[in-house]
Amino acid sequence: MNALRRIRRALAFVIGIVATLWCAPALPQISPAAGAMREILVMVRHPADHYRPSGSYGGGYGDDVARSSRERLARGIARQYGLKFVEGWPMPMIGVDCFVMVVPSDRSTADVAAEVSHNSKVAWAEPVQTYRTQGGESATPNDPLYVAQPAARQWRLADLHQIATGRGMRVAVIDSGIQADHPDLAGQLIVNRNFVAGQSEVAEDHGTGVAGIIAAKPDNRLGIVGVAPGARLLGLRACWQERGAGAQTACDGLSLAKALYFATEQKADVINLSLTGPDERLLRELIKTALARGSVVVSAFDRSKSDGGFPASVPGVVAVSDLSLAGSRGQVYSAPGRDVPTTEPGGRWFLVNGSSFAAAHVSGLAALVRQRKPSAALSLVSDRAQGGAIDACATLERAAGHCDCACARSGFAGARFAH
Q1: Fewer CB within 10 Å: C terminus or N terminus of the chain?
Q2: pLDDT of 129-172, one tens digit each?
Q3: Fold of the domain spanning 36-128
């Protein structure tokens, strides 16, 4: 034990030096998108034949006229109900245009949305709501090396990478801002886009941490190795880091909807949603569309809710917890999510806890499976039917059709295949 402590102290010292070398100025404090909690989303239908396979309206004269007509209709609805029109967001994949309207402070957004929903010209309306990531408190930078990664031991990461690295797969990380030039993430993002209205792109803890677990670079003598280091990330900022010590990461429904739409339009192989919040029809429709178009959607499981919360409760979404839960909690899988070293803004590394980071592990595993078995549904092997601790090695071997990572030594003698 004394020898082990000396090794840990030495590693911590080395990482401290690396962190200092890569140190960057403190991150600015970010507040929620201005006015978002006084907004509602109003969905106006449009004919499906305006949608192009490319995901656009096509740009023709007829399309422009139709779009202008729907905007005039939306502005008229705003005037009718005493609302302020903000902007529109076309979503032809689900047959609607989404319009943002601000509700006066003396009225309830829920009541106004319900009232507007009864308008015959409206498909439906709903308040913009808040979502929160499912990460626990993070420790200071400490021992962020491969040997310290839980997945290195529990999932035998080196063995997995003999079968697949996620090469060619695209993983959408819908989260807070990601530091694209972090030494463990440089070159891993093919997109880094901001969907939070009124805010500029900024690197933040939660999104950068999730990204590192999924796709941190291998063999660069720094930090950690991602579960799918060959995958490429779509960094889609739909959340922001709140102010103050111990602040959480929050998201609003419209920003999430924009990011989900973009991820689906870009044909992401995997969509990671390490968050939870209220069930919104627009988000549910977009998730259903993503699933129907072949994306694997992974979500953090909220242990405070019996069904895991939204979007973990949506049929087809892979719900993941950082702790093994009883079968009575439904189809929920567990993955490494405690004391996980990962990437931190400022070119550093730190330890994280929570279902957010367990979900990131499963998104990485899904990318490995998709590399070996493109377009296939994700079938996880676990220690009980319909959920439980994931056997990553057996899951990947099943997709690959052989036993390269020594499944006989897995320790999951009673593993079951989940469909």
Answers
A1: N
A2: 989 888 765 432 233 468 899 999 899 998 999 999 999 999 99
A3: Alpha-Beta Plaits (3.30.70)
52-66, 82-96, 192-206: which range is least confident on average? Answer: 52-66
Catalytic residue positions, numbered: 175, 206, 356
Q: Which of 164, 184, 161, 289 is nearest to 233 (CA)?
A: 184
Domain ranges of the chain: 36-128, 132-376
User: Model confidence over 218-228: pLDDT tens digits?
Assistant: 888 889 999 99
Prediction pTM value:
0.82
Q: Which H, E and C letters describe the chain, residue by residue? A: CHHHHHHHHHHHHHHHHHHHHCCCCCCCCCCCCCCHHHEEEEEEECCHHHCCCCCCCCCCHHHHHHHHHHHHHHHHHHHHCCCEEEEEEEEHHHCEEEEEEECCCCCCHHHHHHHHHCCCCCCEEEECCEEEECCCCCCCCCCCCHHHCHHHHHCCHHHHHHHCCCCCCEEEEEECCCCCCCCCCCCCEEEEEECCCCCCCCCCHHHHHHHHHHHCCCCCCCCCCCCCCCCEEEEEECEEECCCCCCCEEEEHHHHHHHHHHHHHCCCCEEEECEEECCCHHHHHHHHHHHHCCCEEEEECCCCCCCCCECCCCCCCEEEECCCCCHHHCCCEECCCCCEEEEECCCEEEEECCHHHHHHHHHHHHHHHHHHCCCCCCCCEEEECCEEEECHHHHHHHHHCCCCCCHHHCCCCCCEECC
Angle, to 10 degrees, between the axis of helix 355-372 and the axis of helix 392-400? Answer: 20
Position 326 scores a pLDDT of: 61
| Radius of gyration, CA atoms only, the chain | 22
